[in-house]
Every structure is written in C-alpha cells, then in structure tokens.
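Bit of a strange request maybe. I'm writing a small parser for structure token strings and I need a real example to test against, not something I typed by hand. Could someone generate the tokens for this chain?
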Amino acid sequence: MTSGPDFSDDFRTGLETLLRWRRDVRRFKPTPLADGTLERLLELASIAPSVGLSQPWRFVVVESPERRNAVKRCFERCNAEALACFSGERAALYARLKLSGLAEAPCQFAVFADRTTGQGHGLGRLTMPATIDYSVVMAVHTLWLAARAEGIGVGWVSILDPAEMTEILDTPPEWTLIGYFCVGYPSEEHDIPTLQREGWEQRRPPVVIRR
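Reply from user aminoacidic:
Good idea to test on real output. This should exercise your parser:
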C-alpha cells in the first residue's frame, strides 16, 4: 500500500480558483494548439472514473473541413429551430447569444458513449444503465479542467442532431453522442458565465435536502 499525496492549502486554493474560472468558451483565437497537446488532454480525460472501469468514451477528432462545415450547418439548422421555440424579449436575447465557436476554434472533437462496450463486464450498470453516459461526462469534465489549467478554453456544443452527427462523422450507430467540443485559446477571459453576463440565467445556490 502506498501513501496518498499531501495536498497543501495552496493547492486547494488553486483548485478552487480553477473550478471558479472554468468557462464554456465561445470565442477563440486562431492560434493552433501545440503538437501533442490534444493527445495529452485526451490521455488525462481517460483517467476519469467510469462505471465498472468501462471507459466507454469514444473521441472523434474532426479535422476535415468538409465534416466541420457539415457540423456547422447542422448547428445552424438546429439553432434556428431552437430560436423558434421562444418569443418576444426571450427570443431577441437568444438570437444575440453566441452559442458555438465552430467558426473559430482550431481544434474540434466529438465525444460518444459506447453503451455496448464489454469492458467492465456490466458492473454497476444493471439498474442504472445511464451511468455509461455519466462516465463519459466525467471524462469531459476532467479534460475541461486540465485544459483550463493550461489556459486552453473548451466550449460544449449541444445544439446538434445526434442522428445527423452520426452520419457526418461516420460513427457506429450504437454510439451515443454526448457532445461536440471546440478547443483553443480563448480570446477573452471571464470569471462569470456568459449566460449570466448576458442576462439569460443566474447561478443559484444548490438544492440540498436532508432526510
């Protein structure tokens, strides 16, 4: 048995700062990531916890201009459909929001959950099969924090049609889209979420119930 690391007060303070400054980035500089950076971040993502040690995350790095343009068209169509769900001032506010960095982000990838994976032998999934998807989200969050610690921004694009994305990226039909991510150096820094700054929504205290 080995002894665990001793995390100092300075480390814990730094970790809290990292958590508070993590942002969903929409505006990127055109500066590309250094060679090997994305691969290193994906390796760090893969040490995230997963149900039954299933590691169900499947990363698809999108480099083809044709596929990127197809993703952008998918987003634009889905975003227009989402806008149509609002009216009045809320619709006007939605229309002003920048909800993706697809046109600027130098690095882009999709993340899928493989619900059919045999790794882990099904442990922990019988009564809660959605834990496969949750495991992938844990990997995304791990990558997100690791990137932010290096001054790299990450933006989650969820306004997409999963079935269309499967076709665009030519992925197995049994994989479930968790999200599409834009990665690069942010063109601006904020410690307050964009949606809060724009007046869309406010952070609220956690809901805690004691029994």
